Amino acid sequence: MSRKDDDVASLKKEDQKRKEKRKEKSRKNRKWIIEIFFMAFLISFVFSFVSETFIPNLPVIFGILLIALFIALGIVFDMIGVAVTASDEKPFHSMSSRKVKGANIAVLLKKNADKVGSFCNDVSGSTGALIASSCATTFGFNPFFTSLFVTGLIAAITIGGKAIGKGVALNQSDMILYRVAKFLSIFYHPKR
Fold first, then answer.
1. 177 or 10, which is more confident?
2. Does 32 fall in a domain?
3. Per-residue pLDDT tens for 21-60?
4. Which domain does 21 fall in, by range?
5. Torsional sign, CA 147, 153, 157, 158
């Protein structure tokens, strides 16, 4: 066999390896899509149930506070998703080697930035806004235009808050990721 034949065989092997990696990644991606679908459904279902069950029976001030909580959660999760996606992984490897609390979780979050971003931005961030709007409609605002006004106001506050949060998350992505990872390290201890 000539050198040229060896090179061709080597290229074929590399192509086959890449093809197998893509197939495995595609399989994992399909699994993730199914998981995120059911997570979104479950989270939306639970929060909708809570809002439909408890808000009509709450005093107005507590209903408003609950709506504000859902809006805030949507904004915070959106910021986390942006921060994880925009942050730099290198400082967290360095911190992890020095055994800084939460650094190994930050590396794990960053390595799964697409999934973390999808969960935080799409599932939690959007669900918070949708549930806040749902809360407003169950709140007992019977007049048609009052309900429309409150829902529009909630959407505007949520979108404005997320716009501000995205700017903060982009400018302070590493620090936000570190704080989230440090908080998660209280509950989650990955194997080293």
1. 177
2. yes
3. 777 777 777 888 888 889 888 888 887 787 777 777 778 7
4. 3-184
5. positive
Please state the domain count of the chain: 1
How does DSSP assign the chain, residue by residue? --HHHHHHHHHHHHHHHHHHHHHHHHHHHHHHHHHHHHHHHHHHHHHHHHHHHHGGGS-HHHHHHHHHHHHHHHHHHHHHHHHHHHS-SHHHHHHHHTT-TTHHHHHHHHHTHHHHHIIIIIIIIHHHHHHHHHHHHHTT--SHHHHHHHHHHHHHHHHHHHHHHHHHHHHTHHHHHHHHHHHHTTT-----
Within a domain: 23: yes
Q: What is the pTM of this model?
A: 0.75
